[in-house]
Design a protein that fits this description.
It is built from eleven helices and 17 strands. By secondary structure, the protein is an alpha/beta fold. The chain folds into two domains: about 140 residues, Alpha-Beta Complex (Aspartate Aminotransferase, domain 1); about 230 residues, Type I PLP-dependent aspartate aminotransferase-like (Major domain) (Aspartate Aminotransferase, domain 2). Strands 4-12-11-10-7-5-6 form a seven-stranded mixed sheet. The longest helix has 20 residues. Bound molecules: pyridoxal-5'-phosphate (PLP). The site of pyridoxal-5'-phosphate (PLP) has 15 residues, from helix 4. This is Acetylornithine/succinyldiaminopimelateaminotran sferase. Its EC number is 2.6.1.11.
Length: about 375
C-alpha cells in the first residue's frame, strides 16, 4: 500500500497499521509489533487504554467542540488540574507542539517589550534543538538541516548557543535577550540530556540579563522522564513550559504554561480555534489522572533504568553510548541507524531514529517488562549481526 495523496515527508515504511492494544501494534496482515515508538512519544498510555476510550466516547456524546468565546466545564476543570499539578498560574491550550512553542515565543516577545522595550526581543535556543515546523519554531530549531534556502526568509530575533558548554554562556545574554528556550532532554536532536549544573548556570545567566526561561517539554513533559515535567529534575523553575505530544494520550493537544514574570498574556493576545476543546481536555484529564497515581512516575524511572542497564550489559562494540531519562532513551550506534530501524521493524519492534546515529526508544509509559524484554531481544539480535 502507500499513497501519494497524503503528504508524506516521513520516509515511508511498507507497513500499514490497523490496531493496537497496550504496547503491541497489529498491521493489516495480522503481524504484531512491540511499540517502542508510541506515535513519537504520544501514546503514553499505550493503545486501546480503556479509561481513555471510555472518557473520550462519553465526552463525544456530550460535546466535542465549543470554541474559545466560551468556557467548557471540562476545559475549566482540566486547566485547574494541570495548573495544580504543575505549579503554574495560567495556560494557553493549542493543538500541537509547534503551536505551543509559537505561543511561548509570542509570550517571550511581549515580556521583552514590557520589561526592556523594543530592543529586548532575542530568543536564545540551543544547538541540536528541535522546536517545531512552523516558521518561527523552525528558526528556533538549532539544526542547520532544518534551514534550507527553500523556505527562506526565516524569522528574525533568534540566536543559538552550545548546550552543556560553559564558554557558550559568556556572552549569550544581554539586554536584548527576551528568553532562553531549551529542551531538558533534546529529543529529535539525538536524545541529549542537559547537564543539570549547566542548565542551572544557563538559567541563572539568562535571568541575570533580565530574560525568562522557557522549557520546551513537548517531548519530555507529562511523565516521559519519570517526573511530571522534566524541568523539575533540573531545578530551574522555568517561567514558561510548553507541552503537547503525550498530553492527551493521542488526541491532538498542546499547552503553554506560564507563571511569574512569564504571566504576561492578556485576553486577545493569542488564540486558537480548536485549542482546548472539550474532547481533548477530557482525554488530557484521564492522562494526568493516570500519571499522578501512586507509583506511576517512579515506575517510569525504574523501567528506563532497566532498559539502559540491559542495553549497556550487552557490551556490543557497535553501541557507542546509551543515555536518556526515564522512558526517553537513546542508543548511539556505529551502524546505519535507519538500517537497524528497518531490520527491527521487520522482526517486530517499532522505534525511530534521532540525530545522526541514535536509536530512540520512547515506549508507552505503562509498557510491561515482558514487552520490554521482547523488544530489546530483537534489537540485540539485529545489532549483533
Ligand atoms: C515534537 C516536538 C515539537 C513539535 O511538535 P508538533 O506537535 O509536531 O508540532 C516541538 N518541540 C519538541 C521538543 C518536540 O519533540
Amino acid at each position: 500500500m502507500g499513497s501519494k495523496k497524503v503528504l508524506n515527508n516521513y520516509g515511508s515504511f511498507d507497513v500499514v497499521f490497523k490496531s493496537g492494544k497496550g504496547s503491541v501494534l497489529t498491521d493489516i496482515n495480522g503481524k504484531k509489533y512491540i511499540d517502542f515508538l508510541a506515535g513519537i512519544a504520544v501514546n503514553s498510555l499505550g493503545h486501546n487504554f480503556k479509561p481513555l476510550i471510555k472518557a473520550v466516547s462519553s465526552q463525544a456524546k456530550k460535546q466535542i467542540h465549543v470554541c474559545n468565546y466560551f468556557l467548557s466545564d471540562i476545559g475549566v476543570k482540566y486547566a485547574d488540574e494541570l495548573l495544580n499539578a504543575t505549579g503554574f498560574e495560567g495556560v494557553f491550550f493549542g493543538n500541537s507542539g509547534a503551536e505551543s512553542n509559537e505561543a511561548a515565543i509570542k509570550l517571550a516577545r511581549k515580556f521583552g517589550q514590557l520589561s526592556g522595550g523594543a530592543k529586548r526581543k532575542t530568543i536564545v535556543t540551543l544547538e541540536h534543538s528541535f522546536h517545531g515546523r512552523t516558521m518561527a519554531t523552525l528558526t528556533a530549531t538549532g539544526q542547520d538541516v532544518f534551514h534550507p534556502e527553500t523556505f527562506a526568509p526565516y524569522v528574525e530575533g533568534f540566536k543559538t548557543i552550545k548546550p552543556n558548554d560553559y564558554g557558550s554562556l559568556k556572552d549569550a545574554f544581554d539586554d536584548t535577550t527576551a528568553a532562553l528556550m531549551m529542551e531538558c532532554v533534546q529529543g529529535e536532536g539525538g536524545v541529549f540530556p542537559l547537564d543539570k549544573e549547566w542548565a542551572k548556570a544557563a538559567a541563572d545567566a539568562a535571568r541575570k540579563a533580565g530574560a525568562i526561561v522557557i522549557c520546551d517539554e513537548v517531548q519530555t513533559g507529562m511523565g516521559r522522564t519519570g517526573t511530571l515535567l522534566a524541568s523539575e529534575q533540573l531545578g530551574i523553575n522555568p517561567e514558561v513550559v510548553t507541552l503537547a505530544k503525550a498530553i492527551a494520550g493521542g488526541i491532538p493537544m498542546g499547552a503553554c504554561l506560564y507563571r511569574g514574570k512569564g504571566n504576561v498574556f492578556a485576553a486577545g493576545d493569542h488564540q486558537s480555534t480548536f485549542g482546548g476543546n472539550p474532547l481533548a481536555c477530557r482525554a488530557a484529564s484521564v492522562v494526568l489522572h493516570e500519571l499522578l497515581k501512586n507509583g506511576f512516575l517512579s515506575s517510569v524511572s525504574e523501567k528506563g533504568e532497566y532498559i539502559q542497564n540491559t542495553v549497556k550489559n550487552w557490551n556490543l562494540p557497535c553501541i557507542e553510548d546509551v543515555r536518556g531519562k526515564g522512558l526517553m532513551i537513546g542508543i548511539q550506534v556505529s551502524k546505519n541507524p535507519v538500517e537497524v530501524e528497518k531490520l527491527c521493524l521487520e522482526k517486530g519492534v517499532l522505534f525511530s531514529t534521532a540525530g545522526k546515529n541514535v536509536l530512540r526508544l520512547v515506549p508507552p509509559l505503562n509498557i510491561g517488562y515482558k514487552e520490554i524484554d521482547k523488544g530489546l531481544a530483537i534489537i540485540k539480535e539485529v545489532l549483533e549481526k
